[in-house]
Write a structure and sequence with these properties.
The protein is α/β, with parallel strands linked by helices and 367 residues long. It has helices at 33-44, 66-76, 94-97, 103-112, 129-132, 146-155, 175-182, 221-228, 268-284, 295-298, 315-332, 348-359; strands at residues 17-18, 21-25, 49-51, 58-62, 85-87, 98-99, 117-123, 137-141, 159-160, 188-191, 202-205, 212-215, 233-234, 240-241, 244-245, 261-266, 289-293, 305-308, 336-340, 363-366. It folds into two domains: 17-241, DHBP synthase (Alpha-Beta Complex), CATH 3.90.870; 261-366, 3-Layer(aba) Sandwich (Rossmann fold). The strands form three sheets. Strands 1, 2, 3, 4, 5, 6, 7, 8, 9, 10, 11, 12 and 13 form a 13-stranded mixed β-sheet that branches. Strands 18-17-19-16-20 form a five-stranded parallel β-sheet, with helices on both faces. A two-stranded antiparallel sheet has the order 14-15. Helix 1 crosses helix 6. The structure holds adenosine monophosphate (AMP) and magnesium ion. Magnesium ion (MG) binds at residues 162-163, 171.
């Protein structure tokens, strides 16, 4: 066992400290044990620890400790009514936080956990209102990243964890992204390298027997429909259930880089020529232009700073590279970003959902 961390001072002999935040590098295999133990210890003491999941890095706190959870909101500048996802080490723990769990939830958990699927279920009273945003439901998932699972097991706690970014910024897919946003605001980050999926989990509400995707993500509607043998609806980002948005997070602009992002969709040749016209127009005005493109399109548009996401038909790679590319535009101080649209199939649905949110009203359809 390593000596106990004097967490209050942020002073550790064992780990590098970045502006007061411990950087717990966790290499593969046995070597990660000390880092995981340190991270788990901090969580048990009510501290904030960012950790890798297969989707994006999460900012974790003991989900049953209301004051620790309140600190997540402060660190992220997150609106208090936007509830958090609680991460569990295994599906058996569902019953400790949720009640009246439908049989389909157990089946989905058996099929998709550990993995990028979050289930919205009836909350037990034990879950603090800070976690649920005052709703009577709670969002739960078992993540697939080995370090996340090791941390959850070691801590022996349910861990509430939204994405580990300042609210409104692109989600972090590396520990460096986390430190960029939160160094000095959180106690530690557990570094497990880049996240494989790169976009957030699918949030699925299955209360009432009608599966509704509140946020598209790593598990697709097609997969859920095929597994349950019934249609799975996807709520569009602005759709609401009466007065209250189906998922409070939907009403906030997420995933946005600092520069305005224009998203151009339509026939590929028409998209390319519109991007070219727009790029030239912005360059003429003296603005720096960032192009967010597929490998295919990058070869055809030479001028401007380019971020290449991957081949058009490889939606998983496009999605995995998205947030890192948006953050690099920010770092370069790019004035305006021009992006192309992709096919909305499989994880392409989640990719386009995030691109649209980043674009806000700057969405252009071409024939
Ligand atoms: P984040 O972890 O930052 O990716 O955000 C969590 C997402 O899950 C947000 O979009 C929340 O609105 C959504 N969410 C969390 N809890 C619930 C819940 N009880 N009901 C509906 N959506 C939820
Ligand atoms: Mg988030």
């Amino acid at each position: 066992m390593r000596p106990e961390l004097p967490a209050e001072s942020g002073d550790s002999l064992d780990w590098p400290v970045i502006e007061g935040t411990l950087w717990l590098a966790a290499p593969d295999g046995e070597d990660c044990r000390a880092a995981v133990e340190q991270a788990a210890d901090l969580l048990r003491k009510g501290k904030l620890v960012a950790f890798p999941t297969e989707t994006v890095y999460g900012l974790g706190a003991n989900a049953l400790d209301a004051s620790a959870v309140a600190r997540i909101f402060a660190a992220k500048d997150r609106p208090a009514d936007n509830p958090l996802i609680v991460h569990l080490a295994d599906a058996e723990q569902l019953e400790t936080l949720a009640e009246n769990i439908p049989e389909e939830a157990w089946r989905l958990a058996g099929r998709f956990w550990p993995g990028p699927l979050t289930l919205v279920l009836e909350s037990r009273k034990i879950v603090p209102a800070q976690v649920t945003g005052g709703l009577d439901s709670v969002a739960l998932r078992v993540p697939a990243h080995p370090l996340a699972l090791a941390l959850l097991r070691q801590a022996g706690l349910p861990v509430a964890a939204p994405s580990a970014n300042v609210s409104g910024r692109p989600s972090p897919t590396t520990a460096a992204h986390v430190l960029e946003d939160l160094a000095g605001r959180i106690e530690a980050v557990l570094d497990g390298g880049p996240c494989a999926v790169g976009v957030e989990s699918t949030v699925l509400d299955i209360r009432g027997g009608r599966p509704v995707i509140l946020r598209p993500g790593g598990v697709t509607a097609e997969e859920i429909s095929a597994f349950l043998g019934k249609e799975c609806q996807v709520v569009s980002s602005l759709e609401t259930c009466g007065e209250v948005p189906a998922s409070p997070g939907l009403k906030y602009t997420h995933y946005a880089p600092k520069a305005p992002l224009y998203l151009v969709q339509g026939r590929p040749e028409a998209v390319l020529s519109r991007l070219e016209v727009m790029r030239d127009e912005f360059l003429k005005r003296g603005l720096s232009v960032g192009l967010l493109l597929s490998t295919e399109s990058a070869g055809k548009l030479g001028l401007g700073h380019m971020e290449i996401l991957g081949l058009k038909d490889d939606a998983a790679t496009l999605a995995a590279n998205l947030y890192g590319a948006l953050r690099r535009f920010d770092q370069l101080g790019i004035d305006v970003i021009l992006a192309e649209g992709y096919a909305e199939q499989g994880i392409g649905v989640a990719l386009m959902n995030r691109l649209r949110k980043a674009a806000g009203p700057r969405l252009i359809e071409v024939e």
